[in-house]
Design brief:
Cyclic Phosphodiesterase, Chain: A; alpha+beta; globular; single chain; four-stranded antiparallel beta sheet; binds adenosine-2'-monophosphate
């Protein structure tokens, strides 16, 4: 089963992000009900291992905190793959990320070593983005570089199953872990 752990976007954040998406000049938009901030991508895993991970995650014992989405950028350099909204510096978010990784490792799940770049993906791009599209994207990024959203409270994280099909990915919540 393909799984990941994420922070859900509350309705207000979804509205703001959908609005940002609405004038994006290029790219395949992430559906509003798929918007999330990934804390850990587990990839394809045997169900038994996911059950162990779930048991470990039920011991998650961290406080709720505020999250502010800010800034827009792309991954992929000159050949952008993903356009996203970032998050301002947030020690509580970093602690949550580190704790989840350590619980997953403790349960036997090895994750890729990657620098944590908290982000919410707004759109994905095809392998080849044409020069005019690149130019429109560059302008959009300039116009939205100072984007700042209202902070929202993060009081839980969600374990999702992700099924990738022809129409894109479908995300099913499997379990929710509360922050107190
Ligand atoms: P993204 O938002 O940067 O695209 C479900 O697929 C989530 O897991 C997505 O949010 C995606 O991040 C992330 N994800 C998918 N494949 C990944 C990979 N190979 N490494 C890290 N994260 C991945």
């Amino acid at each position: 089963m393909r799984a990941f752990i994420a922070i859900d976007m509350p309705d207000l954040a979804c509205d703001v992000l959908s609005k940002l998406q609405s004038d994006l000049p290029t790219g395949r938009l992430a559906p509003p009900d798929n918007l999330h901030l990934t804390l850990a991508f587990l990839g394809e895993q045997p169900v038994e291992l996911l059950e162990d991970a779930h048991a470990a995650l039920t011991t998650l014992d961290l406080p709720a905190f505020d999250l502010q989405l800010a800034g827009t950028d792309t991954f992929g350099g000159n050949a952008p793959k993903v356009l996203f909204v970032g998050a301002g510096p947030n020690p509580a978010l970093d602690r949550l990320h580190a704790k989840i990784r350590s619980l997953l490792h403790g349960s036997g799940l090895m994750l890729d070593r990657q620098r944590f770049r908290p982000h919410v993906t707004l759109a994905r791009f095809p392998a080849r983005v044409t020069a005019p599209e690149m130019e429109r994207l560059r302008r959009w990024l300039l116009a939205n570089a100072d984007f700042v959203a209202e902070p929202f409270r993060v009081d839980h994280v969600t374990l999702y199953r992700s099924e990738v099909g022809r129409g894109g990915a479908v995300h099913d919540p499997l379990a929710r872990y509360m922050l107190t």
